[in-house]
Amino acid sequence: MKQDSTRNTAYTVDCEDYVHVVKFNPFDSGDACSLIAYGGNNYVVVGTCRFQEEDAEVEGMQYKTLRTFHHGIRVDAIAWSPETRLDALPPQIRFCTAASDRKLRLFTSDLQDKNEFKTFDGHSDYINDLVFAPKEGQEVASVSDDHTCRVWDLEGNEKAHFVLRSPGMSVCWHPEEAFKLMVAEKNGTIRFYDLITQQAILSLECEQTPLMSADWCLKNTLKIGAVAGSDWLIWDITCSSYPQDKRPVHVDRARLFRWSQVSENLFATTGYPGKTTTQLLVHHLGHPQPILTGTAAVGSGLTWHRTLPLCAVGGDHKIFFWVTEM
């Protein structure tokens, strides 16, 4: 793995295919290495990463592919299951994908002979995001352009169905709020649903559109972030249904918002892929300007490492990694 200074990425990994989506496992899998999954036009690749920032014996970065899963269609989103364990015998890898045929696919593998997948049918339009129940991992929630949020069991049965007023762009399930689901809609509304009563219990407003992406802060359950138009917006849900802070960031339009896993003040946004490059910005709430600006050739996807201030974006036959300060 080489250090790449040209686009100020800390590291790059070469990939067989165009990378549409990349996702670090946000859960502890019982191993010193971090699991990462990325999806292209036909495959999902699962690998492990180790960085010099966490292990002095590593020179730069070590990456190893564990398995390539044939997917047969473009991968649009990936969610990891908390049941994924590398320290079990045999190990278990479990993740779910959303694809351009409007289906979810649940993959389970022991990295040897057992490789299963199930298809979940029901959405009638493009699926924008999905997430596993963060504690037990026995359910998956997904949101779609079909104006629904659906919750599925691992057999693909629909357990809940929320009708939205516009396309569902993001869905989040917080480990400390296991009975609530956060759903962000393209019309600028973010709603929280109680999964027991299946009722909406709280809503936040962007007052601008289109909302493209939203995230629930891991380190502070009261903080929600999003991008809408060319701005990032942040709410403190105890204060108001309107943003506490917002700032224009991407010249044309912002595409993704992701909180870091290690700090409630650190987050990243990406712009829309331009003709050649996608802009990544890392922001710290204590700083008026972005603390890091990166570019990736036709980048897509955005994900943060579970324990380091390090994020990754997919691109043309590459994954780009950036390291920032806390």
From TrEMBL:
Q: Which PROSITE patterns match?
A: WD_REPEATS_1, WD_REPEATS_2, WD_REPEATS_REGION
Keywords per UniProt: Cell cycle, Cell division, Centromere, Chromosome, Chromosome partition, Kinetochore, Mitosis, mRNA transport, Nuclear pore complex, Nucleus, Protein transport, Repeat, Translocation, Transport, WD repeat
Keyword presence, Nucleotidyltransferase = no
Q: Which SUPFAM superfamilies match?
A: WD40 repeat-like
Its assembly, as annotated, is:
Component of the Nup107-160 subcomplex of the nuclear pore complex (NPC). The Nup107-160 subcomplex includes NUP160, NUP133, NUP107, NUP98, NUP85, NUP43, NUP37, SEH1 and SEC13.
Q: Which GO terms describe its biological process?
A: cell division; chromosome segregation; mRNA transport; protein transport
Q: Which Pfam families match?
A: WD40 (PF00400)
The top of its lineage is: Eukaryota, Metazoa, Chordata, Craniata, Vertebrata
- The answer to whether UniProt assigns keyword Nucleus to this entry is yes
| Record SMART domains | WD40
Task: Spell out the InterPro entries in the cross-references.
Answer: NUP37, WD40/YVTN_repeat-like_dom_sf, WD40_repeat_CS, WD40_repeat_dom_sf, WD40_rpt
Q: What is this protein called?
A: Nucleoporin Nup37
Q: Where are the WD repeats?
A: 120-162
Q: What is the organism of origin for this protein? A: Phaethon lepturus
Compartments annotated for it: namely: Chromosome, Centromere, Kinetochore; Nucleus, Nuclear pore complex
Task: Return the GO cellular component terms, semicolon-separated.
Answer: kinetochore; nuclear pore outer ring
What is known about what this protein does? Component of the Nup107-160 subcomplex of the nuclear pore complex (NPC). The Nup107-160 subcomplex is required for the assembly of a functional NPC. The Nup107-160 subcomplex is also required for normal kinetochore microtubule attachment, mitotic progression and chromosome segregation.
Q: Which domain of life is it from?
A: Eukaryota
